[in-house]
Amino acid sequence: MSEAQLDARRMLCPMPVIRTQQKVELMHVGETLAVCCTDPGAIHDIPAWCRVNGHEVLDIVQRDDEITIRIRVCDA
User: Fold this and answer.
1) What is 4-72's CATH topology?
2) CB 16, CB 37: distance < 8 Å
3) Annotated catalytic residue: which of 13, 36, 37, 50?
């Protein structure tokens, strides 16, 4: 199964979370999504959104000014 990608670089809060939500709505339970963003607030905002909506954060990797947050879509 391939991992979906979302490019949210150069977007400011709340857009990375909104785009993540829009993408997840099109996905199936068990699929994974890698969100690439540059807004430092996304490190907290996307995991908080995942907790509220029942999705799983697999990992968060930060390289220079880019942050990649991988999530697994769960049955919410």
Assistant:
1) Translation Initiation Factor IF3 (3.30.110)
2) yes
3) 13
Q: What is the pLDDT of residue 2?
A: 76
Residues 71 and 30: their CA atoms lie apart, in Å, by 10
| DSSP code for 27 | S
Is 74 annotated in the active site?
no
**5-41 pLDDT tens trace:** 999 999 999 999 999 999 999 999 999 999 999 999 9
State the pairing for strand pair 32-37/4-8.
Answer: parallel
| Domain boundaries along the sequence of the chain | 4-72
> Whose CA is closest to 29, among 50, 65, 55, 3?
55
